[in-house]
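Batch manifest line 386
LIGAND: adenosine-5-diphosphoribose
JOB: complex structure
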Amino acid sequence: MKTQVAIIGGGPSGLLLSQLLHVRGITSVVLERRTQAYVLSRIRAGVLEQGLVDLMREAGVADRMEREGYPHTGTILAVDGESFRIDFTQATDKPVMVYGQTEVTRDLYAAREAAGGRIEYEVEDVVIDAHGPSVSYTVGGEPRRVECDFIAGCDGFHGVSRKTIPEDVRQEFEKVYPFGWLGILSETPPVNHELIYATSEAGFALCSMRNETLSRYYIQCDMSERVEDWSDDAFWAELKRRLPKEHGDALVTGPSIEKSIAPLRSFVCEPMQWGKLFLCGDAAHIVPPTGAKGLNTAASDVHYLYNALRRFYEDGDSAGIDGYSETALARVWKAERFSWWFTSLMHRFPDQSRFDAKMQRAELDFLRTSPEAQAALAINYVGLPY
Ligand code: APR
Ligand code: PHB
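JOB STATUS: finished
ARTIFACT:
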């Protein structure tokens, strides 16, 4: 098979890139290890920056998001039972869009299918030749090969793309946090029309939503805890304990339809390109979920790579391609910094000294009272410019 861009991974990064390239008449093939149903069964965050909203529009996949998504112009922070609001519009002219990542992925699959886009599912044994360039793989034991001009490694944290960059070239930077997030999805109305990020002696909690009848809640937990040991009742009780009284009292509880524990990690791989291979999204970096930067940072990589490829094919200009890693990483590190900062501010660390706890409270009080500190949070939360 021949194509212009071979894309490894059919998650949001790979699909968005494929669809954007298609709009510009650039061909691609997406190689996905799982089935489409499996990819769509993964539950992920649901807050989209304006940059991603604009990319969805450019890709021609924004209709349902515009109809069913919720623009939010602020978020609530709750500290030891007292809450205050961060207004995004004071410091930026942008809202965020609350729309689930699963829905973004669903819309992208529909658009690729409607356009006759080539997606191979259940591919195995992917081997990348970053200099050929080509990608070989098997489907049902049968060997196949794609020849291409470029390869986009959009295969997530556990994919093969990053590992194709030789160890003496690749540098990895990592921080693992000493806690996880226990999350549930429930068919109940959200406790508030805006998200609530809460911190207290008992630890972090987040109230999020998918729509008027579907809520997503998280509480910080120990990584040694097991989902089986958390009944729905125990979850609701612990969540309520971590929220201000007015929100705790308003909480509508019900059976969970999903419950899972996720670890928190910060990770960056440098460089993000090797030969004709370019990494995008979770393949190159991971953020802890506080602030919802995972999907949004993947989208910024896609923005840079898509525009670099466009410039190459439309104008014969390879400057964007050559500078991709440097350009993408500059923004990646800022999203890493924000996610690390917001995580550090809002969680209880098991080894925290009394002094550390006082520093956290002082910073939270500064944030509560300083318009400048709130502006710094807002501009990062809605997304730094590309
Ligand atoms: N070959 C082919 N496909 C692979 C391989 C492989 N060897 N390894 C992994 N994949 C596929 C996975 O099955 C998955 O569908 O690559 C896809 C990667 O998707 P994601 O992990 O969702 O990563 P990405 O598309 O970069 O999305 C960005 O934002 O909110 C965050 O972590 C969240 O998924 C989210 C991410
Ligand atoms: C979510 O809705 O799942 C979500 C929202 C905001 C975050 C993290 C997760 O910061």
